[in-house]
Amino acid sequence: MISLVAVLAVNAQDAQYQDIHYTVDENRLTAEVGPNPRAAGEVFIPETIIVGQNTYTVIAVGDKAFKGCKNLTAIVLPKTIERVYRSAFDGTGIMLDKENWSDGCLWIDSILIATDKTIKPRFVVPEGTRLIAAGAFQGNKTIVRVELPACIRRIDHETFRDCKNLQKVIIPKTVTSIGEEAFTGSGIYLNENKWKRGAFIIDDCLIATNNDLPAKYIFKNKIPIRLIAERAFANKKNLRTVTIPATVTAIPTAAFYGCEALTDVTIPETVREVGNFAFYNCPLLRSALLPRGLERLGDGAFYGCVNLKEQVLGDKIEVLGRATFYTCRGLKSLALPSRLRRIDAGCFAGCASLEAIELPAALTFLGDKAFAGCAVLRKIAIPAGVNSLNKQVFQGCTRLYRIDLPDGLYAIGDEALDGCLALERINIPLSTFRIGVRAFHNCQQLRGVVLVDHIHMIEEGAFMECKMLEEVVLPAGLQHLQRGAFSQCINLQKLVLNPRLKRIDDGAFFGCRSLREVQWNDSLQAVGAEAFMDCKHLRTPMLAPAVEIGKNAFKNCK
């Protein structure tokens, strides 16, 4: 089974920029300020950072980013910041210095970070506040009423959690999203009169649900619901069907997470966004047809929906996120939008019934493991804009017998076609220069492969256990053949070394028991340990004395 953690974290990388630690997303080109336990003095966070060849936009200050940094006295946050965690500044010099507080509030660059008991019970958040940090009011027992300004777009997770005396919050129409457990344990949340038919509603926002929720839920409210909070229906074991009202424009993150009995969801045409993990692990979900006008479908949106057999993707979708249809084993076919330019990591991984899919011409990126484990997928054509087959992209596609590669392809990544048992032939484009680690490992029916002259990297185990290969001519540009590259190719009979090849690594042709003929070259400098071990029909060659020969390099040869 493909690991969820591996699929979702595959593009998250640690980075250092001007002495500050970040986590960057290589696909989305965004960055989050990560843990910086030694930060001190004044810290400047820029709008963008440059790491390697890429420029990343800084959009968040992460959980506990500067926690405990008592010598951190000031920080400048950029306008690109979309999310800040209150815990990011716990125990810092900024938070401990009372001169940084005003009327019970800690502010950093118009962001409300935290509150204390000196805040007014009836608090109006000032106009011009651009963000409220996650957990900014958490546990505050002083506040009774909070009025949010029209400039606020989001109420983040745990913002008012455990505010025992909070009785009223005025949410403006400008708020378009509410995080998970934003009001859990607050006075207003604990007020039974605020719950109707198992739903907790403030103004026209559905915040949470409980076990009194009907199995067949249809929104019935005097004021139409316009917004559903994150995880609002999460883990409701008895919920079977839901009809979402036409006043709603987004299904938020993890809205129906873990609803194990959910079978049908009616989604109106007004919905433009489905958030990350919206229907995560809803194993009985059969029908949740997306509207044609949908613009965004989040990571893991239908992760683990093993009974989902049909889906519609409108033409406005340009990106399919990580693990979007992960292990949707009932999904047999899907028409992709013509404007689709990215299919991210693990998007269709484990879709064991996916028989056919046509990739649109606009596509430029296929993420790691995008189609891994699509066991009945038989053929696929890679569009011209895709210049690399990424790691494990078609790993375990056991019935894939044909893949058409574009002329501009420059690399076939690690384990890209590992375990494609039915693949018989592959035409490698002239532009290709790298064949990655175990790229064609265990392609047991692979008979025909022409290694074009531009290839200068054939990495470890690239063609290991390709049992039907009979002849290999190494490309003119190759100088170093890596470990186990053609090991256990038991039907390989003829090998032609190119004139520039200098080194054959350990076990490169180990167990090639049918190998009879090798055309050696004069430039060879080293043959690694067990390189030709158990090549029973190969005569030990007369190599030049200067050639370094490893232990057992020709053991069990003639």
Oligomer: single chain
General shape: elongated
Structural class computed from helices and strand pairing: mainly beta
* Integer average pLDDT: 94
**Roughly what percent helix?**
under 10%
Task: Give a written overview of the molecule.
The protein is mainly beta and about 550 residues long. It contains three helices and 45 strands. Strands 1, 2, 3, 5, 6 and 8 form a six-stranded mixed sheet that branches. The two termini are about 45 Å apart.
TL;DR of this structure?
This protein has 558 residues and is an all-beta fold. The protein has three helices and 45 strands.
Question: How are the secondary structure elements laid out?
Answer:
Elements: H1 4-9, E1 12-17, E2 20-25, E3 30-33, E4 41-44, E5 48-51, E6 54-61, E7 72-76, E8 83-84, H2 93-96, E9 101-102, E10 105-108, E11 111-115, E12 122-124, E13 131-132, E14 145-147, E15 154-155, E16 168-170, E17 177-178, H3 187-190, E18 195-196, E19 199-202, E20 205-209, E21 216-218, E22 227-228, E23 241-243, E24 250-251, E25 264-266, E26 273-274, E27 296-297, E28 319-320, E29 342-343, E30 365-366, E31 379-381, E32 388-389, E33 402-404, E34 411-412, E35 425-426, E36 434-435, E37 448-449, E38 457-458, E39 471-473, E40 480-481, E41 494-496, E42 503-504, E43 517-519, E44 526-527, E45 548-549
Parallel strand pairs: 3-6, 4-7, 6-8, 11-13, 12-14, 14-16, 15-17, 20-22, 21-23, 23-25, 24-26, 26-27, 28-29, 29-30, 31-33, 32-34, 34-36, 35-37, 36-38, 39-41, 40-42, 41-43, 42-44, 44-45
Antiparallel strand pairs: 1-2, 2-3, 5-6, 9-10, 10-11, 18-19, 19-20
